[in-house]
């Protein structure tokens, strides 16, 4: 059983092909700069990498190239061999609390949510329609970044704004990175030897985008990203939490337009805004002797510590704290600083294990730590493939 996972962006398309019998990845790649002169196609197989520059005018052509590539490289004999295509869909709004088979109704709802994720949802729809254009009967499943967080209770999803905005206008916390946090839950529960339904963790996804999630007995009960992916932790170029009064000040007294403030908060803030750099490896290197980079690192870590403290307070029990994402999985320094001096919470790091850990999943808590500490490589595409399979198995019962 082979499942193709597609993550369509506005001018890119990432893909990964899985053999579901053993959950192995057969090949993956991306088509970049769709609609531009510089478009290119990359397919990575076990033994070799195929990379070529070629014109790719739109998502339909991208899918054409991808399907041809899968056949030419011998990964599939024909499209009939694909059991299904699983799509990453960024915003499922309040409609979707789990992955689902895509039909007209689902497509329409994903379309209705475009104002909440303009770039993402419209690109996701292009990907779905492009597959349909090639192979109308292909079973397609939508896996939403927001779905895992639909279990968040209203006191954590509602903002303290006039009630009608929550009830009628969908102004509320949706949360993102749900596929990654769901994958962390499964992996951590495996390491703890518990069922996911009985596992409570704090999950930190620290990449260019960053979010933290409080998971109680297998359910998300709070997360740092909000109605949009702008809220919460300090990110590569996004500000995370700020006082909304700053918008009015910048607009009324400093002449910034709404679009300029939007660009600033999303693309010119976070680590990049603070020190001019958003590559955490470089920041950590330069932080050794440059106070500018040290201040960016410290802001990043301080916000994480505040959220860990908050989630320790709202969770009934914490079995483990789990780190993932390019920074969370790879940086022993960020993990150490984030968890430093938290003995009062029953959190004690084993410095050697933290620094030595390299495998795809490892623990780094001290023997005396009440709360277990893990660093785990996330695999959002595998989680999408697993959920795609689950939806189809259920729908055929
Ligand atoms: P995205 O959110 O775009 O998927 P990633 O999860 O790949 O991003 O994370 C990218 C970030 O991870 C970058 O800031 C990069 O510098 C950082 N990173 C990767 N490896 C390391 C490392 N060994 N130490 C510190 N940061 C790292």
Query: What class, by secondary structure content?
Result: alpha/beta
- The rounded distance between the terminal residues' Cα atoms is 17 Å
Query: What is the number of strand segments?
Result: 14
Rounded Rg = 21 Å
Question: Unreliable runs, pLDDT <50, ≥5 residues?
Answer: none
Layout: helices, strands, pairs:
Blueprint (H helix, E strand, L loop, with lengths): L1 E7 L4 E7 L4 E9 L7 E6 L3 E5 L5 H14 L9 E8 L10 E2 L2 H9 L5 H17 L5 E5 L9 H4 L5 H5 L10 H15 L8 E6 L3 E7 L2 E5 L21 H10 L3 H10 L2 H6 L4 H8 L3 H24 L5 E5 H6 L1 H8 L11 H6 L4 E3 L8 E5 L3 H16 L2
Parallel strand pairs: 1-6, 6-8, 9-12, 12-14
Antiparallel strand pairs: 1-2, 2-3, 3-4, 4-5, 7-8, 9-10, 10-11, 13-14
Bound molecules: adenosine-5'-diphosphate.
Could you please describe the fold and organization of this structure?
With 397 residues, the chain is an alpha/beta fold. Helices cover 40% and strands 20% of the residues. It is built from 15 helices and 14 strands. The protein has helices spanning 59-72, 104-112, 118-134, 154-157, 163-167, 178-192, 245-254, 258-267, 270-275, 280-287, 291-314, 325-330, 332-339, 351-356, 380-395, and strands at residues 2-8, 13-19, 24-32, 40-45, 49-53, 82-89, 100-101, 140-144, 201-206, 210-216, 219-223, 320-324, 361-363, 372-376. The protein has an eight-stranded mixed sheet, sandwiched between helices. Helix 1 (59-72) packs across helix 3. The longest helix has 24 residues, at 291-314. The radius of gyration is 21 Å and the shape is globular. Bound molecules: adenosine-5'-diphosphate. Adenosine-5'-diphosphate (ADP) binds at residues 207-209, 236, 279-281, 284, 325-327, 330-331. Adenosine-5'-diphosphate binds next to helix 10 and helix 12.
